[in-house]
Amino acid sequence: MSKNDNFFEKVYEVSRLIPYGRGTSYGAIARYLGAAKSARMVGWAMNNSHSKDVPAHRVVNRIGLLTGKHHFEGTNLMQQLLESEGIVVLENQIQDFETLFWNPIDEL
User: Which of 32, 46, 90, 108 has its Cα between 20 and 30 A from that of 17?
Assistant: First the structure.
């Protein structure tokens, strides 16, 4: 197992804890894991998570943009998954993201 694989598994563990109807950012997960400058690496982990039972749709950029949506099957699957949890998405951005934001540092 490489260092990246180990980091990815830690990312998946944290992302599985994101509550239904909430979202977090790549950077928040990176900071929680003690790797504050690794938000992009968290994104790569999310891109590779589709066969791992990970709610990758709940992880977005720092302002709530669905920057990873092109890694989901179908045109709007990421948005549809969020909306099925009651999250409003307009123009590829979670609305009221500050209220819906789940910070693993605060919660765990």
Answer: 90
